[in-house]
Design goal:
CATH topology of the largest domain: Isopropylmalate Dehydrogenase
Radius of gyration: 20 Å
Order of helices and strands: EHHEHEHEHEHHEEHHEHEHHEHEEH
Shape: globular
Number of strands: 12
Distance between the termini: 15 Å
Oligomer: single chain
Helix content: 40-55%
Number of domains: 2
Strand order of the largest sheet: 3-4-2-1-5-12-11-6-7-10-8-9
Largest sheet: 12 strands, mixed
CATH superfamily of the largest domain: Isopropylmalate Dehydrogenase
Length: 334
């Protein structure tokens, strides 16, 4: 049996706490691996109540109690309390979210947790309390001692896996951030992770072009010929099954999706728009290349609906399920 999953609270004023509680309530039907929440026992209890969930939420002082308790109560590790108001984020809540993230990650790095599942944060609010990272992916890369280029965001749902090769930057900066080395490094990480964590023995990758019509022979830009095509040729020479560059407007059709296991997109929205259009309520943000397993629901804090019992828990449940499956594969195969 693997260790429990560590779940970070997210911003306590957002929907994270309530969809975590809903995930526990549906643990049996979803077949979830046991998990505990890092901090915020009062926040979780109030969030559960706001959804009409009559579930026991129990504070634990030792992780050895998490798995034993999981079938009868939602275990929460730590004594942190915070009187959060749904939909009204504040600095105290941001500090709790940051502490929860740091502690959940620490347990995963120590091996006392099999994975970390992160609930949504408000990046601007976290910056006010000392968070110096563009997002949780970059935070995890830094604490794991990796270069940020080697922590790769993949969005995964039932219909699509998509990887944005550049992430949190202005669209105008994308062409200058793209390089042959970046594409090659991240493609290798994606291929290894698909084999190791998803059980795909011979992963197939498809690469988007940057420009409309993948540049159309240089008429709409030269990045395809100058950067993307040489990277693909190098990777093919290493034995990877990789195609492209493809026009992005054709790569996400049902017929095209059957030809690859993951699509590599050139920028954030090129990957996230199709994923959210296809799998919004089941989309998972998974970080590839880390020494630990990390997943997250692929949506934000949704302050406007927090506490109103309307937030769909599907993406959180999918993130919990995927984290458990990935952790079990790593435990079985090393």
């Amino acid at each position: 049996m693997i260790a429990p999953l560590a779940v970070s609270l997210g911003d306590p004023a957002g929907i994270g706490p309530e969809i975590i509680a809903e995930g526990w309530a549906r643990r049996r039907e979803a077949g979830l691996t046991p998990f505990f929440v890092s901090g915020g026992v009062d926040v979780i209890a109030r969030a559960a109540h706001s959804r009409g969930l009559d579930i026991p939420v129990e504070r634990i002082a030792d992780l050895s109690d998490a798995c034993a308790m999981f079938e009868t109560a939602l275990p929460v590790l730590g004594a942190e309390e915070h009187g959060a108001t749904f939909g009204a984020p504040d600095d105290h809540g941001a500090a709790l979210a940051l502490h929860s993230l740091a502690e959940a990650t620490r347990h995963a790095l120590l091996g006392s947790a099999a994975a970390v599942v992160t609930a949504p944060i408000a990046k601007a609010r976290l910056a006010r309390v000392g968070f110096e990272h563009p997002g949780q992916t970059e935070f995890l890369a830094d604490v794991c001692g990796l270069e940020r280029e080697d922590a790769v965001m993949m969005l995964a749902g039932p219909s699509l896996r998509a990887v944005p090769l550049t992430v949190h930057c202005a669209l105008a900066d994308v062409p200058t951030r793209l390089s042959q080395d970046l594409i090659e490094r991240r493609a290798r990480i994606v291929a290894r992770a698909l084999a190791r964590d998803f059980g795909i023995a011979a992963p197939r990758l498809a690469v988007c072009g940057l420009n409309p019509h993948a540049g159309e022979g240089g008429r709409f830009g030269d990045e395809e010929a100058r950067i993307i095509e040489p990277a693909i040729e190098t990777l093919r020479g290493e034995g990877l099954s990789i195609t492209g560059p493809h026009p992005a407007d054709a790569l996400f059709t049902p017929r095209a999706r059957r030809t690859y296991d993951a699509a590599l997109a050139m920028y954030h929205d090129q990957a996230l728009v199709p994923l959210k259009a296809l799998d919004f309520d089941e989309g998972v943000n998974v970080t590839l290349g880390l020494p630990i397993v990390r997943t997250s629901p692929d949506h934000g804090t949704a302050f406007d609906i927090a506490g109103k019992a309307v937030a769909d828990p599907g993406a959180m449940i999918a993130a919990l399920k995927m984290a458990g499956e990935m952790a079990k594969r790593r435990a079985e195969h090393g």
